């Protein structure tokens, strides 16, 4: 390749990235028409989607988690379906089932009727109100992007994303998600109460004769292009080292005093993969073409908090997962400043 060819290639990459930046800016602006005061939640949810993964939104009822998912489906131009998880929900209610047909001659045959999982954006509402058996019906789909019914493989649409909402486990009628399923979520996103200004805007904007509506900004094909761009973004060696250092320091037995004393079991390699992808997506989201250590620090909580468990002693001392992660990322903050 000649120097001229290299220059042309770089120009093409920059042009593609700049178009993606504009699309992301338009998505943010459109979403902000109806979602108020949840900038961090919107950002992290979009980062999960731009990275090609799934997100778990955790918060008490009434914080617009479901509305956010429906809004993003419209703005991103994705086909969507919703499953309301309840204690009596069965796996077939998610995946689909085989029914028996009979033709005019009396010949019988089985036909597979697809369930709501066959969509581009699946809203799994209050996912922890269903039994663990039903929750596990999502495992294969979230990891392998296909399901197997009576030995037959059925591929899911592309892109395929699960945005699940979860009520705090302290609430009545909830089941903890299995650790294997939690690990399939790229990010666990905490949805907090809105601040005073945002809640005031909610009151004014949502109780009148009409509410703002959003339109489509991109479509599924364009989303796939942006996801491909995210995976092609370069990651500096310093950021790779920061990710490895952080993930490994969260595992007991690796020489970390915090992990040895506070963590029962730590994150696996999938946590590092999640940080690599979402750090790239966050850089693009904020108008940069390569991630920095600051991106790793910002995403440590959403990536790690559902992939670790505190020891009994830590819980007894009132230590939270946020406390532990804050201490783990402290060295990275100093290195990014240096």
Automatic annotation (TrEMBL):
Q: Which residues form a coiled coil?
A: none
UniProt xrefs under Pfam families: AAA_3, AAA_lid_2
A Gene Ontology MF term for this entry?
ATP binding
- Give the matching Gene3D superfamilies: Magnesium chelatase subunit I, C-Terminal domain (1.10.8.80), P-loop containing nucleotide triphosphate hydrolases (3.40.50.300)
Alphabetical keyword list: ATP-binding, Nucleotide-binding
**Domain AAA+ ATPase intervals:** 51-195
Going by the entry's taxonomy, the superkingdom of the source organism is recorded as Bacteria
UniProt lists the family membership as follows: Belongs to the MoxR family.
What this protein is called in its record is MoxR family ATPase
């Amino acid at each position: 390749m000649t120097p001229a060819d290299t220059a042309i290639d770089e120009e093409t990459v920059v042009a593609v990235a700049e178009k993606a930046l504009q699309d992301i800016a338009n998505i943010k602006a459109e979403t902000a028409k109806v979602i108020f005061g949840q900038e961090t939640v919107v950002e992290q949810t979009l980062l999960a989607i731009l990275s090609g993964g799934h997100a778990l939104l955790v918060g008490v009822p009434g914080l617009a988690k479901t509305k956010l998912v429906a809004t993003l489906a419209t703005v991103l131009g994705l086909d969507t379906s919703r499953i309301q998880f309840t204690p009596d929900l069965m796996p077939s209610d998610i995946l689909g089932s085989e029914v028996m047909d009979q033709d005019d001659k009396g010949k019988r045959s089985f036909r597979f009727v697809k369930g709501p999982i066959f969509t581009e954006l699946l809203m799994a509402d209050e996912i922890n109100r269903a039994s663990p058996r039903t929750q596990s019906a999502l495992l294969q789909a979230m990891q392998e992007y296909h399901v197997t019914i009576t030995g037959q493989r059925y591929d899911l649409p592309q892109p395929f994303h699960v945005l699940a909402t979860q009520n705090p486990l302290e609430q009545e009628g909830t089941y903890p998600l299995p650790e294997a399923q939690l690990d399939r979520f790229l990010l666990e996103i905490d949805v907090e109460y809105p601040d005073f200004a945002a809640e005031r805007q909610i009151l004014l904007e949502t109780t009148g004769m009409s509410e703002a509506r959003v339109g489509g900004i991109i479509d599924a094909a364009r989303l796939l292009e942006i996801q491909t761009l995210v995976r092609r973004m370069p990651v500096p060696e310093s950021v790779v080292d920061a990710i490895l250092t952080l993930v490994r320091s969260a595992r007991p037995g690796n020489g970390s005093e915090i992990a040895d004393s506070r963590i029962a079991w730590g994150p696996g390699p999938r946590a590092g993969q999640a940080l690599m992808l979402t750090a790239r997506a966050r850089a693009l989201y904020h108008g940069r073409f390569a991630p920095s250590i600051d991106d790793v620090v910002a995403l440590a909580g959403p990536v790690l908090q559902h992939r670790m468990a505190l020891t009994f002693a830590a819980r007894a001392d009132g230590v939270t997962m946020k406390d532990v992660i804050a201490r783990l990322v402290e060295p990275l903050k100093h290195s990014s400043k240096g």
